[in-house]
């Protein structure tokens, strides 16, 4: 197998592994609050929103040290261990206990930081400036296939159900735990690159080929990775991209947790309200897959760079927010177990609700594929610290959003996303224009990014 074929093979395996793990985790997140609402008359008193807030809060803090962990352990083993913790979190729902639920939330927050930092490193070392756009799109399309498969099962399994029984819950979460473990095992198929640098290493070939197994060498790499993360955090490009990244964190919270809860709380949807949560996730996944695949395949022929894709993303999202505002009752995110009979500015439409799910996924893929691409392009030599900062900002904003989702009406959640999305688009444009100018100055073809 040629080096280029091996790199593409690694990207595909990376995407498939994440697809399995996040088939389990994203489906879990999408139905967690609905399942927990059906448990709250028992001894269990947890909150899905609070759990996600803990996860993303710990996730954000852990990104400060995750480059050092990946530097010491290596990206492959880091992803394997992290995958195990994802599986344990999902397994908690088989027999929920409040203490276990929140403890697992802390551990998965740490695991998530390591997993995504290692993913960014793996994506970058298997790409170059000519393939980073394609590989980002391929990875994103495979990853977001997870939204399709898990939610398809939920749609059929919960068809016509207004209450989720103990048997229903156990069957779903046993299956999701097994699926997560399959994805974890697949990480072992990723083939090491002979020239792969671990985070924090210098460019020197002698250092790459040196005694990287010694404890002193590993500690040196860990400290260097930490210092690099702090240094990169204050660069102009990272600060500007942080606004865009913050927006993706808010949107992540909304489509992966809040919007499904809103749909499940609308009593006017009748007996289909719970199964519609699964259908919503399916169409979000279709939007993500379509966007990732389309922008990955077209990246080689895109002579205009990343800005048009991001512009498409923000327009699609603003249309979705507008329709959701008109279609969904304001109290839907915080409705009690009985749901809500309120009406917004139109009679709630299942078709409009599901169409908005598709738009949320499509717009999210526009932003994330281009952020992965520009980070891999700008920081090809410092991939792990750069992706750790990306996930730090995204996750802390997701944590904040999950926290206020417990209290804010729908209209205020939508308004926050509109404001941050507007400014995030402008800051992304600024960085992209500067990247394009630098590329032209180097004599490269701008369409290659």
TrEMBL record:
Keywords, alphabetical: Glycoprotein, Membrane, Transmembrane, Transmembrane helix
Coiled-coil intervals: none
Subcellular location: Membrane
Membrane disposition: Multi-pass membrane protein
CC annotations in GO: membrane
InterPro entries to which the protein is assigned, alphabetical: Ion_channel_UNC-93, MFS_trans_sf, UNC-93-like_regulator
Keyword match Cytoplasm: no
Transmembrane stretches, start-end: 7-26, 46-65, 100-118, 138-158, 170-190, 238-256, 276-297, 309-328, 386-404, 410-431
Family affiliation: Belongs to the unc-93 family.
Record PANTHER family: ET TRANSLATION PRODUCT-RELATED, UNC93-LIKE PROTEIN MFSD11
UniProt-recorded name of the protein: UNC93-like protein MFSD11
Species in which this protein is naturally found: Ciccaba nigrolineata
Lineage: Eukaryota, Metazoa, Chordata, Craniata, Vertebrata
Gene from which this protein is expressed: Mfsd11
